[in-house]
């Protein structure tokens, strides 16, 4: 049987990996550069992105030379690790594509069809943002958004707000069902999340 061809126009999409956290639950270590199955988490994520996205960016605040080995980097314009939306806002200042696919740096096995499913629901509902839902909870940092939102995001950040979920609630936001791939959203955000046979 011939595989169904993707209808997502990946050349209109920038992939942005959010790696700007302070690593407080990792004893200050940079999560995206921790080794898992013999290579950094950031490398696992890049390997699972569609090969023909227009651009891959990494939003980071430290170890920039290391991250530049994998993709173009962009740094937050706001100080003191103010969260993923600050990283997104900084990236949107440099992105020229119509849409941005965002992923966190600490989930090394995102669905390979993540972009296709998000794009399908975003288009179907003519929404601003579409995020993944694993059947139990919203995975808000796995999302596809229209880049015109950067003006709205600027105002939200100026108001002092930082919650991703609360920002989404102000917009035309929908979710895509990934209940058949719940394990793909495995999150490694503290050292105890590594099993004994995994490298850290």
From TrEMBL:
Mg(2+) binds at residue 106. Its EC number is 2.7.7.77. Pfam families: NTP_transf_3. GO terms for molecular function: GTP binding; metal ion binding; molybdenum cofactor guanylyltransferase activity. It catalyses: Mo-molybdopterin + GTP + H(+) = Mo-molybdopterin guanine dinucleotide + diphosphate. InterPro entries: MobA-like_NTP_Trfase, Molybde_CF_guanTrfase, Nucleotide-diphossugar_trans. The keyword Magnesium applies. One of its GO terms (biological process) is bis(molybdopterin guanine dinucleotide)molybdenum biosynthetic process. Monomer. This is Molybdenum cofactor guanylyltransferase. It comes from Zhongshania antarctica. The lineage of its organism: Bacteria, Pseudomonadati, Pseudomonadota, Gammaproteobacteria, Cellvibrionales.
